[in-house]
UniProtKB/TrEMBL annotation:
Family membership noted in the UniProt record: Belongs to the ABC transporter superfamily.
Chain ranges of the ABC transporter domain: 3-234
Keyword field contains Nucleotide-binding: yes
Keywords of this entry: ATP-binding, Cell inner membrane, Cell membrane, Membrane, Molybdenum, Nucleotide-binding, Translocase, Transport
Record SMART domains: AAA
Species this protein is from: Chelatococcus caeni
InterPro entries in the cross-refs: AAA+_ATPase, ABC_transporter-like_ATP-bd, ABC_transporter-like_CS, Mo/tungstate-bd_C_term_dom, ModC_ABC_ATP-bd, Molybdenum_import_ModC, Mop_domain, P-loop_NTPase
GO molecular function: ABC-type transporter activity; ATP binding; ATP hydrolysis activity; molybdate ion transmembrane transporter activity
Mop domain ranges (all copies): 294-363
Protein name listed in UniProt: Molybdate transport system ATP-binding protein
Length: 365
């Protein structure tokens, strides 16, 4: 049996705007729909929810919601929808809002249980409060809880953090990470903030001007030289890694990825065997042709240059880790002057020196 997936293929016009969006996403985990303002992300989500209609197909984990002969109305599509701004019912308490979608009572055999949602989103101190007594972040947590308790097969989140300030975003991100770990529910998460993508998503749908230009695992798209992410100013790759060793005397952890190991500051509570995400920014990676001598840089990995994207004064090299370059891909952003002076070229074996590797806070499945 093939794994359940989300299959979307939509085409049509909205005024002067032409949309042609086709992609497949896994039937579990978080898939980010990422692209600049106005590229059609919200329209895609609204079509999946049945709130708008364009020609095409929409299949969600084995159910056909739309094809040539079918168009399920919105109330027959089991989606939870979280918008930019939480619109809670002012006359209901937080508890009343949470239970609104299930008419006051979660069925006993429901997949998503009330107590679990309250625990997951830290809502128990808020249950009796009225919405006007909540902060923006708390309101959004209630909106997410309400969407989950409607027992959806798919959670649609349309820029759920974009109306919040930076500190509130940082307060909510850990809840979203936990949600991802605790529930097997697939999530389509619209954002134009790459930081959120890197924290939350496993899979990416990349949109530009009404079209899906790529869809696939996050790290693969971040390191694909044919895509604009590679040359973006804040280009980075998120690698899923396993903690293999801890050195409490120095507060360091060793993490293995395909083709290499990284040593990073461990942070409290890190455990051997955990899966964690590493973020490696292109600007933090420099290249040497010979093994460098003693240095304060902890991470020097063997790699091969797999592709080169040259800008005016900078070059971004896509590296494959390992002596043969067959391992995980990372990016190195170096000056064109250094690139030419070192006579670097595609296929060449190099030593990648990584000045800083960030360990993302959440444990991954
Ligand atoms: N009903 C409509 N009539 C005309 N144009 C529309 C209609 N709905 C959407 N559009 C246009 O379609 C384009 C895509 O809009 P959409 O809201 O899907 O983009 P988005 O990627 O979600 O943008 P943002 O990140 O700013 O929310 C925009 O140019 C918008 O103006």
């Amino acid at each position: 049996m093939t794994a359940p997936t989300i299959e979307v293929a939509l085409a049509g016009r909205r005024g002067g705007f032409a949309l042609e969006a086709s992609f497949t996403a896994p039937g579990q985990g978080v898939t980010a729909v990422f692209g600049p303002s106005g590229c059609g992300k919200t329209t895609v989500l609204r079509c999946i929810a049945g709130l708008e209609r364009l020609e095409g197909t929409c299949r969600v984990t084995g159910e056909t919601w739309q094809d040539e002969t079918t168009f399920r109305p919105p109330h027959r599509r089991p989606v939870g929808y979280v918008f930019q701004e939480a619109s809670l019912f002012a006359h209901l308490s937080v508890e009343g809002n949470l239970l609104y979608g299930v008419r006051g009572r979660v069925p006993a055999d429901a997949a998503v249980r009330f107590d679990d949602v309250v625990e997951l989103l830290g809502l128990s101190p808020l249950l009796m409060r009225a919405p006007h007594n909540l902060s923006g972040g708390e309101r959004q947590r209630v909106a997410i809880g309400r969407a989950l308790l409607s027992q959806p097969r798919l959670l649609l989140m349309d820029e759920p953090l974009s109306a919040l300030d930076r500190a509130t975003k940082d307060e909510i991100l850990p809840f979203l990470e936990r949600l991802h770990l605790s529930l097997s529910l697939p999530v389509l998460y619209v954002t134009h903030d790459m930081r959120e993508v890197e924290r939350l998503a496993d899979h990416l749908v990349l949109m530009r001007a009404g079209r899906v230009i790529a869809a696939g695992p996050l790290a693969a798209l971040q390191s694909d030289p044919a895509l604009p992410l590679v040359t973006a100013r804040d280009a980075a790759v998120g690698l899923d890694a396993v903690v293999t060793h801890l050195d409490p005397a120095y507060g360091l952890a060793t993490l293995a990825v395909d083709g290499g190991v990284f040593i990073v500051p461990a942070g409290a509570g890190t455990m051997v065997g955990e899966r964690r995400r590493l973020r490696i920014a292109a600007g933090d990676v420099s290249l040497a042709r010979e093994p460098p001598g003693p240095s304060t840089i902890l991470n020097v990995l063997e790699a091969r240059i797999r592709a080169v994207e040259a800008g005016d004064n900078e070059v971004t090299a896509v590296l494959g880790l390992g002596h043969d370059g067959a391992g995980a891909r990372i990016l190195a952003r170096i000056t064109r002057r250094s690139f030419e002076r070192l006579e670097l070229s595609e296929g060449m074996a190099v030593h990648a020196q990584i000045k800083s590797v960030a360990l993302a806070p959440g444990v991954r499945r």
